[in-house]
């Protein structure tokens, strides 16, 4: 595989090595800058940096003053070195305050009941919507100016971000079976939090702290510049910049020392925090998911590319209230397993059912094309639709027992389509049903044929459904949450059965699921759907290994570490907006931790790079793909 410029693409291990090196370099240089500032506080007297000497006003760099003097004749080098230390301590104090307030608050909210969670998160969200600058001004107005008071204000504002993260992680972990059993065996709440909750918080907190440090330095410089934090004559990078601006006409070089130091700190924090995010995002994806997906992909039969059995192209599906699926495009190569993943209400079932001609009453395709083996379904005659449904597309429904007629024996379910749609005799259809039941692993096909749906276990009922879907020898099978009604051991067997049948029968499988575990276990490619739109797509190993869209990242974060099983997505506040609701820009903006003004300024494009596509301005900006002037400046 070649990289963009014709160079071989780096292996994941090579990428991780490079990322680690990036973090080490960034962190080492930051520590060096800090140590230089710290040493200065012990070696340079405060007087030499604050004492005015009007005879030496605005002296250029020279032997006496290596960086020159400011407009009050103070040595610029001494002031810059002391400012480094002051700013570092102000930012570290703010972050410490944020962690001390935010983390326990978040854990407390997460451990409380749903009502407590709803109410407190409303309050937290309300406070979060207040700009940090306003919070600091309130702190300064009530506590007075100065470094400590502004750090308290900044710390309080940042603490709400930590509270959100801690609450999310607490919700994710508190209903884990091992936590429940610890609770049952009498472990108190405090020990529960200390033993089980806190260790899981470390990873997201480290990532967020790296980002917050960067924001903290910018904010600290801004506050000092406006005279809200460190007070003159004491130096800080912000007030050095303000002094330099006042003397800009006479001595323009004055801006360089503080400016360059600030830029260096921000760039190094960028380097370090991006590296940490990348490293922990990759290693944060449950290892077994990735390993399982990669191992399985290496054993898969070849997919015949270029022969698409299903193409859904720019499809919009409308109901009375509006569009429920918006401009969705997906395709399946022959023999490929493709997962369509998302929460309830994301439109994934509606999208898939459009390919089977099974849209519910009142829903219709108002734009786009659906093709099965080259036959256009949109506007197809009822006859063509019937034959496509019987011969080309098979559907496996979520709840097999309720998907069967309770008054029919299994035999009738399996023979009826063969007799009515394929013209087989009853005997032929019965023999075929026996063969199909054998093929799906039912030990006593004859006995099974005589049973009613309510006499079947969930696993057997799903096998019967699979047999029914295979009856027409379809080239595409749509499986709508085929395992969610089953217990976990049966889930894996049913998935493996589907994969085995796919390998021998060469059908394409469209797997609708809300579980990243199922995606990793079964799919070659994945489309992530949110509120009626595809937000990310690509090869499973790529999307799970390097998720770009914050929603995909949240879905992955909701999978417990080292546990391949389904769990409810609790990591995000709020819920999926109704797909019919018209929103100005990114449909995920209301729940996105990285939302910025540009995200709601217009529809976010779906941009693909090397087969991996996502609908997120932030991801696109980071990849240097998105370069629309005027929409990049205010992104996080
Ligand atoms: S476009 Fe903006 S709001 Fe939407 S997912 Fe990306 S960062 Fe979040």
UniProtKB/TrEMBL annotation:
Report keywords, A-Z.
ATP-binding, Cell inner membrane, Cell membrane, Membrane, Nucleotide-binding, Translocase, Transmembrane, Transmembrane helix, Transport
Q: Which domain of life is it from?
A: Bacteria
GO terms for biological process, alphabetical = peptide transport; transmembrane transport
* UniProt-recorded name of the protein: Peptide/nickel transport system permease protein
Q: Which residues form the ABC transmembrane type-1 domain?
A: 84-273
Q: Does the keyword Repeat apply?
A: no
The keyword Metal-binding is assigned to this record? no
Alphabetical list of Gene3D superfamilies matching this protein: MetI-like (1.10.3720.10), P-loop containing nucleotide triphosphate hydrolases (3.40.50.300)
ABC transporter domain residues: 310-556
Give the primary localization class: membrane
